[in-house]
Amino acid sequence: MKKELSIYLDIVRFTAAMVVFLGHASGNLTGGFLWQLNSYLSASVMVFFVLSGFVIAFVYDTKEKTIKEYTIARVSRLSSIVIPALLITVIFDQAGILINEGLYYNGPWEPPQNEFINYLLSLFLLQNIWGLNLNPGINVPFWSLSFELLFYCLFASMFYLKGKIRVITFVLLLLLAGPDIIIYFPIWMMGVFIYYLLKKDNVSTRPISMSIISIVTAILLIIFIPWIKKNMSYSPEILITQRNILADYIYALIFSIHLITVSPLIHYFKIFLIRISKPISYLAGFTFSLYLFHRPLIQFFATFSEDPSSVQNRILVILGTLIVVLVIGGWSEKQKYTIKTLLRKWTTTNRANL
Questions:
Q1: Tens of pLDDT along 94-143?
Q2: Cα(271)–Cα(340) distance, rounded to whole angstroms?
Q3: How far apart are CA 120 and CA 137, in angstroms?
Q4: Which helix (H) or strand (E) holds 5?
Q5: Which has the minimum average pLDDT: 116-130, 203-217, 247-261?
Q6: CA triplet 140, 141, 143: central angle to 5 degrees?
Q7: Residue 234 and residue 228: Cα distance in Å, rounded?
Q8: DSSP type of residue 108
Q9: pLDDT of res. 34
Q10: 267, exposed or middle or buried, with CB in 10 Å at 0-12, 13-18, 19+?
């Protein structure tokens, strides 16, 4: 993957995470501050899905040549953030309820789901198979992690396994996932398709019109997402949870076209992108933790003010959340390397003992 493209993708995914964070922090919790971002939440998740497929295709093609390495990488990546996210959720939810119970049970969001089964299923990222909707506490963003896990598994069955075992495993995974996850799998696979389409990309031979298309698609996403969300609505009856599948596919398709055509444009900014690569890589390293940590944190910090629209409340909700994400997220992100090392030693030891 070209350096400038990698930097650009980091910018996109961190921006999407910030949109989700600020979108959830908007509305009644902050007196309507940045309420416009609320329309961009689902579109941001579709961006994550496409980017996830792209990145998984890249690591499969260049790094993780065996299903063992692939599995270790996915487990270490997910567990390093998921476990701290669950701890943050239960701790800050319970503390927030003690301070201001009404904000949790009579506030702008659905009450927290504090049952043990929610946390147990969320630990294994199975809380949304077959539309269970058993997210932990008030941490609604966890819904997409069940989708991601099954996408990873479906990809592995397609690309690592062979013969009958491939077909059997793929079918069993579909049966485990349920219709909601299955119908979104093609969106994730758009990223895989884009990676292989761009793999042998020669920017110098691509026409200037490509840059125009990439700019137009970016403008479409920025300006017309609220209109698409409002006017392009369709949810098939097969879905257990009512998601706007039509709008989500439109977001994903527009973003996919943008990715396919953006290479010539970012090539013009190659020197600039490389110069800012260090701070961008640093911020992008917090994308996953920001996405999974923010929801219980913004609710907790909102409990301290009786006036959601006050400047003090807005600063506390936004900056308080970001500080916790930077501190805990910085530590959590490093743990994936420790977990990966432990898993490699464990699998090697078990094999030697057989």
A1: 999 999 999 999 877 889 999 999 999 999 999 999 999 999 999 999 99
A2: 34
A3: 12
A4: helix 3-25
A5: 203-217
A6: 80
A7: 11
A8: S
A9: 86
A10: middle
Rounded CA gap, 266 and 80, in Å? 32
In 3-state terms, what secondary structure has residue 224? helix
Region at 130 (left for phi over 0; alpha for psi -120 to 50; beta for the rest) = left
Match 């969001």 to its residue by tokens: 109
Cα gap 298→69, rounded to integer Å? 36
Which tokens belong to 24?
A: 């959830």
Contacts of 34-40 with CB under 8 Å at 24 or more apart are 36/226, 39/225, 39/226, 39/229, 40/225, 40/226
Is the CB of residue 50 less than 8 Å from the CB of residue 144?
no
d(CA 247, CA 242): 12
DSSP symbols for 115-141: -HHHHHHHHTT-TTGGG----SBT-GG
User: pLDDT category, 279, cuts 50, 70, 90?
Assistant: very high
Q: What is the three-class DSSP state of 55?
A: helix
Asked if residue 28 lies in contact with residue 108, where contact means CB atoms within 8 angstroms, the answer is yes
Per-residue model confidence (pLDDT) at position 203: 55
- The CA-CA-CA angle for residues 130, 132, 134, to 5°, reads 150
Which pLDDT tens digit goes with each residue over 47-95?
999 999 999 999 999 999 999 999 999 999 999 999 999 999 999 999 9
If you search the block for the tokens 């506490």, which residue do you land on?
Answer: 137
pLDDT averaged over every residue in the chain? 92
Burial class (CB in 10 A: 0-12, 13-18, 19+), 246: middle
Angle (nearest 5°) at CA 97 between 95 and 102:
155
Calpha distance 130→179 (Å, rounded): 7
Dihedral through CA 29, CA 33, CA 35, CA 41, nearest 10?
Answer: -70
CA distance 277 to 283: 10
Task: Supply φ then ψ for residue 34, to 5 degrees.
Answer: 55, 35
Amino acid letter, residue 41: L
Are the C-beta atoms of 196 and 258 separated by less than 8 Å? no
The DSSP code for 65 is -
